[in-house]
Amino acid sequence: MTTPAVTAVKRALPRALISYVVEEPFRRLVEGNPSIDRVMVIPAKQGAGDFARFVRELRRETYDVVIDFHGGPRASRIAWLARGKFKVGYDLKYKGWIYDARVPRTGGGGPIHSVENHLNLVRAMGLEVEQPAPPLLLPEATTAEKAKVDRLWAENGFAGAKVAVLHGGAGNAFRDWGEKNLAALAGRLAATPGVKVALAGAEPDRPRAERIVAGCEKAAGEAGPGASIHPSDDPLCNAPRWGSGGAASVVSLADRLNLIELREVVARAALFIGPDSGPMHIAATTRTPIVALFGPTMPSHFAPWQAEATIIAKALDCRPCKQRECPTRDFRCLQGITVDEVLAAALKYL
Q1: Were 275 and a residue from 91, 170, 214, 228 both cysteine, which residue would form a disulfide, CB within 3.0 to 4.6 Å?
Q2: Pairwise CA distance, residues 266 & 52, whole Å
Q3: 3-class DSSP state for residue 27?
Q4: pTM recorded for the entire structure
Q5: 143-349: CATH class
Q6: Cβ burial 184-199 (10 Å sphere, 16+ → b, else e)
Q7: Which among 329, 331, 336, 330 is positioned nearest to 313, based on CA atoms?
Q8: Dihedral of the CA atoms 329, 332, 334, 337 (nearest 10)?
Q9: Nearest C-alpha neighbor of 237 from the set 268, 267, 261, 215
Q10: Structurally, what CATH architecture does the domain formed by 3-124 represent?
């Protein structure tokens, strides 16, 4: 969600040379961005010696402007230690002194979308941001990445089908809709004529995705072609009806795609469904519609930017929260969203 701000800087200062610091897992999201001239990569976990070496490299240059889009402990240290004539960041407690220009994360009128927050950092440099605001921008898949997705499309019989990409992992329990809900939704989507389901996720999500696929295969095999399945028959594939060929209708792509390959899959799909997460925002860089499930976070801050989307959220007094401890201990903000609600939203697009 920083990419519109990067585009805005380049539009205002077309001759500027822009370096972008990014953690290793996410370098592929910025490499090839036409507004970025140099990508500086740091590992997600860094020892003191590694960080010192990175800072020495960083300080070889003197920058006209340093922008801290993140504000976290390491990002603010990098902004502090970088040689910069003018530094811009958020007005955060104990860190505001680092920056020459400080921007509040929340305006007087209420919450500000994260993309607008980043654009306000650009405005704090004294630059105008063209309207309408720039879109999210990720690099196109390479020839090799597209060929890999072509193979996955052919192997799984996605050609001619309406593919629904279902993402379940979100990094923490506060944004985890739950395996049972995901399996029930996958089964009911796959029971819809012409629809196939691709389960997306990272390496930690693979066991769950494989269990969901196995549960659906078991349900299809035991029921036989055209049979009906009662919701209690198999909690990992809670489909009210599972037709012939159902075993191939739910496929796991978890831990099989890099982030740009995931974007390529979503771009070819009919729908993306998932919680407020990185993959949801990757989906927002495509024209594919989104059904987004919001629990502790607020759409006013993190809704899919400039995307066709249906947002499902519960109006609760405890929302939003800092995601440290659930005050009701049952994560009701997300768990209160039913499979029926998500299915109804999905079928409008499918």
Answers
A1: 170
A2: 39
A3: helix
A4: 0.89
A5: alpha beta
A6: bbbbbbbbbeebbbbb
A7: 336
A8: 150
A9: 215
A10: 3-Layer(aba) Sandwich (3.40)
C-alpha distances in angstroms, 20 versus 100, 284, 327?
A: 20, 21, 38
The rounded distance, in Å, linking the Cα atoms of 338 and 57 is 51
Strand bridging mode 84-90 / 101-103:
parallel
Query: How do residues 119-174 score in pLDDT, each as one tens digit?
Result: 999 999 999 998 899 999 999 999 999 999 999 999 999 999 999 999 987 678 88
Q: Is the pLDDT of residue 20 over 90?
A: yes
Tokens 């003191």, residue located: 48
Work out the burial of residue 36: count CB atoms within 10 Å of its CB; fewer than 13 is exposed, 13-18 middle, 19 or more buried. buried
Provide the 3-class DSSP secondary structure of residue 106. Answer: coil
What tokens appear for 111 in the block?
Answer: 């919450």
pLDDT tens-digit series, residues 22-71 = 998 899 999 999 999 999 999 888 888 999 999 999 999 999 999 999 99
- Partners of 199 in the β-ladder: 166, 252
**Cα separations in angstroms, 240 against 61, 63, 290:** 62, 60, 24
Side-by-side strand order, sheet with 309-313: 250-252, 195-200, 162-167, 271-275, 290-294, 309-313
Nearest to 116 by CA among 244, 20, 5, 230: 5
